[in-house]
Amino acid sequence: GFAQRAGLGFVGKNTMLITKGLGSWVFLASIITTLDLSADAPDTRTCGECRLCIDACPTDAITEPYHLDARRCIAYLTIENKGPVEESLRSKMGPWAFGCDICQEVCPHNAVVKAEPLTVSLQDVLSLQSEEQFAAKFEGTAMKRAGRSGLLRSACLAAANLERRDLLPELQELCRHEDPLVREHAAWAVEQLLSTSTPATSSLLEQSPA
């Protein structure tokens, strides 16, 4: 797009702008000025034959080089999407409860610079009791964009995909959540975990709230 034409980098097969030295770990900004500046030449580099990002995407969101189906992208599904996650994609989302960087992490241009992830306990997320608790915990962070219900929805899927049977009490409690979106995904997570239940799981269930 414009950034490539301005010489800032080139667009990779994962649709990310890849800059020199920093790869795709960048934010773009604009400066409006009256200065008469010389234009930079467009960045003519390409990904060549590399397709690591395409092959690594768990949900096959990169349908072909330079084409991303946002409806399958974990970053979209866990942040911008405000509705349910298609059932066929839930088990493919792995441990990601907010965002996804897989296509960037495997990119050779990002080998030098790595983003520092914001780590939060799944139990802490699943135990959020109110909007006030959510706001207090995530104020000033990007995670607030998902909203409490969206984050709970995605955390339920992550708990199931990580086989966190220790979180069954929290998930069962969320099956009675006031938001049907949360209830649906909590119930799915409980069903997945119970399908491979163990005697220890049964003990947890007996101790969980009725």
Keyword list:
elongated; 210 residues; 4 strands; 11 helices; two-stranded antiparallel sheet; mainly alpha; 40% helix
- Give the overall pLDDT as a whole number: 91
Question: What is the CA–CA distance across the termini?
Answer: 55 Å
Return the structural class. mainly alpha
- Characterize the main sheet: 2 strands, antiparallel
Q: Could you give the order of strands across the largest sheet?
A: 1-2
How large, in whole angstroms, is the Cα Rg?
21 Å
Q: Are there runs of 5+ residues with pLDDT below 50, and where? A: 204-210
Number of strands: 4
The helix count comes to 11
Strand content: under 5%
Roughly what percent helix?
A: 25-40%
Q: What is the overall silhouette? A: elongated
The secondary-structure element order is HEEHEEHHHHHHHHH
Outline of this structure?
With 210 residues, the protein is mainly alpha-helical. It is built from 11 helices and 4 strands.
Q: How are the SSEs placed, and which strands pair?
A:
Layout: H1 2-5, E1 10-11, E2 17-18, H2 52-56, E3 62-64, E4 67-68, H3 74-80, H4 87-90, H5 102-105, H6 122-126, H7 131-138, H8 147-161, H9 168-174, H10 180-194, H11 199-207
Antiparallel strand pairs: 1-2, 3-4
Helix pairs in contact: 8-10, 9-10
Protein model, in words:
The protein is mostly helical and 210 residues long. 40% of the residues lie in helices and 4% in strands. The protein is built from 11 helices and 4 strands, in the order αββαββααααααααα. The protein has a two-stranded antiparallel sheet with strand order 1-2. Strands 3-4 form a two-stranded antiparallel ribbon. It is elongated, with a radius of gyration of 21 Å.
